[in-house]
Design goal:
The chain has 6 helices and 12 strands. By secondary structure, it is α/β, with parallel strands linked by helices.
Length: 298
């Protein structure tokens, strides 16, 4: 399970979030561990909100908790993330297209900002490590829009053209639609299966609007078939991934800003079985969200 961390987790001494500048208590990492999230994409427009010290503190807190990460770096030498299970290797990249806080030239190594040069180098590195698939988290801010803009689409296409298989968008607080296709690989007769969700929404966040209350979790199965001869030598290898319906969630928020996450389908069922867990107003949000998610992904 991989997630996106769209905030510094830099310690109380640097001050917590305001409207424009983010910083979250270290305890959120305990929640992340309880959710069995083992790795985080950390390059976002808010990575530098507490400046260099905030990035380095966040990295230290992640490493103390034993949570893998990619997207931010504590030295000029970039850190890479490769996950391996059942003989399948997945390279994970994390980029942002902009920074909320301007970085000086000697700070640019801290956060992976998407450039043609860095993308080419990163994909080459991962392919040299013989990864089977490349997944990229892309923070391309489009805040509370339900519609994907051209900048998001163009950057996703750039990632696909470079050799990325899956792009997961994190720059909007609202769920947006998906794209799936088989595209031609430059200089090859082969085609590449590509998939993007342009925005996953805001799983744990401020929930400032009704649309912010709903998010999705990408649900993807990676497959690899290997055929060997009698000597044990690999003579054929095929690989692909299967896209399942995303897992949708709904956040119920109290007047004291306590929140509880539900699976969206469970929330619908609870209300329809005469549960008093949700108000009529909350049910209206749940019902509208359910219809919207179905239209986006089914």
């Amino acid at each position: 399970v991989v997630g996106s961390l769209n905030t510094p987790v830099a310690g109380s001494e640097l001050g917590y979030s305001t409207t424009k500048i983010y910083n979250t208590p270290v305890e959120i990492l305990d929640t992340i561990q309880k959710l069995n999230i083992s790795a985080l994409a950390t390059a976002t427009s808010h990575s530098m909100d507490k400046k260099q010290e905030g990035v380095l503190n966040t990295i230290e807190n992640l490493e103390t908790k034993g949570i893998k990460y990619t997207g931010t770096n504590k030295s000029q030498e970039k850190s890479y993330l490769i996950l391996e299970k059942n003989n399948i290797k997945i390279g994970v990249l994390s980029y942002t297209t902009e920074s909320n806080i301007k970085m000086s030239d000697d700070e640019t190594y801290l956060v992976n900002v998407l450039t043609d040069e860095s993308l080419t180098q990163d994909v080459k590195y991962l392919k040299d490590q013989n990864v089977d698939f490349i997944v990229a988290y892309l923070c391309c801010p489009n805040e509370d829009s339900t519609l994907t803009n051209n900048v998001q689409k163009e950057n996703a296409d750039k990632l696909f053209d470079a050799g990325v298989n899956i792009v997961l968008g994190t720059g909007s607080k609202v769920v947006q639609g998906y794209y799936e296709d088989q595209i031609e690989i430059s200089g090859s007769e082969e085609k590449s299966h590509v998939y993007a969700i342009y925005s996953l929404g805001d799983l744990i966040g401020s929930y400032e609007t009704d649309d912010n209350l709903v998010s999705v979790i990408a649900n993807i199965e990676f497959e690899k078939d290997i055929v060997k001869n009698r000597k044990g030598e690999v003579i054929k290898e095929t690989k692909d991934f299967k896209v399942n319906l995303p897992i949708s969630t709904f956040a119920k928020v109290t007047s004291s800003y306590s929140s509880t996450l539900y699976l969206l389908d469970d929330a619908m069922e609870k209300y329809n079985t005469d549960s008093d867990e949700f108000t009529a107003g909350e049910y209206a949000i749940i019902s509208d969200a359910s219809e919207r998610i179905k239209k986006l992904f089914e």
